[in-house]
Structures are given as structure tokens and as C-alpha cells.
């Protein structure tokens, strides 16, 4: 509940003496907006006179922030259809914009602080959505379409008492159904879901099944299959002895000494042959890619 705060007349400093003592406010967040405007002028005036980093300066700055947090909540409501469930994050980002506005505001501008601060707050929130919330790159056209669709869905859901169909959205927005579908698909790139997200319970063990448990992954054996597929025609081009050496070493997993004994060659000779063969095959496979 807002509280109307009665505060004493702050003493006005004499010329060349320095800032006046500011009134103490127990809970600045409960100050009514009309009082916040009056007191804001006083606090801004003193903020410009106080030395940065002093306790009085911090008190004046923090009080201005708390007194004007209602502006952040007001601005954050404009983004409730953006698809983010983390309104707390939006308020925190908006508060950064409020702080920037307080640090840059000057009474000499002769404008209301509210009018000066709102663009800073909204700009910071928009920057948050632009830079932080899209999990994958999506064209700006589709980013804007996602917002339009979100607003249209909420409006039509209120009228129809159910979620609207693609056809109903397309008619309402005067767009093609394909374009609406494209926008809905693009919404999936707005945020990334956690692999630990529960999606059900396994019947036998009654253990929770997460998205990560059922999500497909790249099979490391696929790369081996591709390599073998590329290697097969190259092996066909080897002479009988070279092909046999490769087969004995990698097919039957014989040691170089065993291969030498099998072929009547020294281990050193087998080692040199294998090195030459592998270098040749590697070069030819790379040239094929």
C-alpha cells in the first residue's frame, strides 16, 4: 500500500556552504507517486551537490531508485506478452535502465523525471530481449511477427474462450496461413529449454523421464561408417600384399612382429610399409573430401 509521507522542509544551504541535510525516509518504496515527484526534485538537487561515494550521496541515490521502482513495474507490464515467464528478470533489467536515468538526469532539463526515465527503462528491457532471449538466430521479421502473434492469440483467446486456430490468426492479422505457421515455428527459437525438463514418468520404475533421456544425439559410429565407406574403394586400388598387410593389422589386429613372421618380413620392414600405406590412404581420403 502506498504511504503519503509527510516530510519536513529541508534546510536550504547558504551560498557556498554545501548541500542541505536530506529528510530520512524509512521505506522509500511506499512513498506515493505525488510525494515522490516533490521529494524527487529535492533529492536530485542535493545529489548534484553531494560528493560521489559519500554515505549521503549513496542515501540520496538509493532513495531515488526505490521511490521510482513503480516506473519499472509500469514499463515491465508492456512486455508481459513477450513469452518470457521471468518477469523478475525483466524488472531487474528495467531497474538498470532506471539507475542510468537517475545518474544522467539534471533538473536543468526542465522535464519531469518520469518522462525522462521511461525511455531508458524500456530501452534496457528491449535490449535484454534482443540480445539475450533468442536461443537461435531468427530473422528480425520473424522476431517481430512472434510478438504480433502473441498479442493476437491473447486477444482472440479472450473472445473465443479457447486458443485460436492458425486460420483464425491468419484472418485476424490479414496474413497467409503459411506466414502464421512460420512465425509460430520461429517462436520455438525464443528460449532454450533445459535437458532436465521432466516430460513424464517411466511406467516400470516410476522414475521421472527428462527431455535429455529421450533426445537423440549424434552417433559417434556414424563418422566411422563414413570413413569406411570412403576407404573401401581406396583399398581396392592397393596391390595384394599391401591390402593383406592392412587386413592383418586392422582386421585381425595382429602385431607388426606377427605380420612380419606371417609374410617372411622383418618387423622394421613391416613398420615402414604400414607408415607408407597409412600416409597414402590418409592423403587420398582427405583429397576426396
Automatic annotation (TrEMBL):
Signal peptide: none
Pfam families reported for this sequence: Sigma70_r2, Sigma70_r3, Sigma70_r4
InterPro entries recorded: RNA_pol_sigma-70_dom, RNA_pol_sigma-B/F/G, RNA_pol_sigma70, RNA_pol_sigma70_r2, RNA_pol_sigma70_r3, RNA_pol_sigma70_r4, RNA_pol_sigma_r2, RNA_pol_sigma_r3/r4-like
Keyword annotations from UniProtKB, A to Z: DNA-binding, Sigma factor, Transcription, Transcription regulation
Domain RNA polymerase sigma-70: 89-102
NCBIfam families documented for this protein: SigBFG (TIGR02980), sigma70-ECF (TIGR02937)
Protein name, as recorded: SigB/SigF/SigG family RNA polymerase sigma factor
Organism annotation: Streptomyces durocortorensis
